[in-house]
Amino acid sequence: ISFKSMVKHQLEVANVIRQNPNVDAFMTSCGARAGITSSNSGVVFMRLKPKSERKLSPEQIIQQLYPKLIKIPGIRVFLQNPPPIQLSGRFTKSLYQYTLQGTNTGELYKNAQIMEAKMKTLPGLMDVTSDLEISNPQVNLTIERNKASQLGVTAFQIEDALSYAYSSTQVSTIYAPDNEYKVILELEPQYQEDPSVLSLLYIRSSSGKLVPLDSVVSMEKTVGPLQVNHTGQLPSVTISFNLLPGVSLGNAVSEIDGLAHKTIPANIITSFQGTAQAFESSMKGLGMLLIMTILIIYMVLGILYESFIHPITILSALPFAGFGALLTLLIFHVDLNIYSFVGIIMLVGLVKKNGIMMVDFAVEAERKEGKNSTDSIYEACLIRFRPIMMTTVAAIIGTLPIAIGLGAGAGSRQPLGLAVVGGLIFSQFLTLYITPVFYIYMDSFSKWLPKALHIGQKTEP
Predict the structure, then answer these.
(1) 246: left (phi > 0), else alpha (psi -120 to 50), else beta?
(2) pLDDT at position 340, please?
């Protein structure tokens, strides 16, 4: 589309946004700019009203605007709520990016179109689009150098004439007393939209005569790529997409990876970019991080208690805390993302202190007072009940504002608070009953095991 027509369409988009009561202000820009290299694209930045003055979330406002914007003919609009931290330097129409790279542009463009079409069929994705535009009308000019040389016209003069006609070259500056004005040399707008006007351009030859452009060049009307994008040093095509409400990024990443293995040949490199890439790389190590956290805690507790059994008793509350955190996220329809996973890691430290309080007292009662495991853990539950409840309630109250989602940008932190509060509440009611029972059985197991293995017993020859 021409720049003039693009401006007209984008003003229609701005008019729809202006009528939305949730939008406080907006800025619109059209054409090539930072992050956008094509002239048939534009961008609108919307600043929403404070959360206290609107009832809808950013995602709900997107769903409200989308049906109105898709009715505008001649333009496609993609809406996204940018993350607090922008992980990708590439500006795309949708929030998540999937990039294909290859040395053969013909094969790359062919497979990118196939991949884009198949991604549109995935049920959890929306706004699937790409930066591949290979049907852009263009005119190829081939300089006939022998004929141009005979007429006294150089290739530099031909390029210079085309530059002055179409590239909006600044040739001078007019300085006024209170301002300055740039003098731009170009053809009038009505001559910029018709390729046949090229035949009306004349070039002054070395003899001083005017030579028509079409006498020294051959023109061919064709189509080609609007731009050739690169990622690193290889030509690339980036397919961007958004997620439907309720669809997790992890499921989308898995489905796209599976689709790529069936569709894309081995000589084309595929990778996620931006937020999707950060999610994919971080989730690979989160499971190992959780395992290493529990292992290190077990080793430290084993050294402190000089036992292989008591640390297991203390850590027995972790499965219930994790289940409570996941159940809370499920109830509130929140994804298991980086924030919520950090909350689960926090739960490991918060929940195990309940077991430490009880087991530490019971172990000391057994060693110093000679009580059996049942009496010692029962007394530990009675005496340590108050500090356990005090610390748990203090942790819940401290995390509750995050779980409720108070303050600006609270939506990104809310999963962390929900995971901690839900895990603490769920595990608190269970561990007060399950940990003592687990302690009794594990203590009996620690006494039975040496006898079963004949450890420490003398045998007669």
Answers:
(1) left
(2) 84
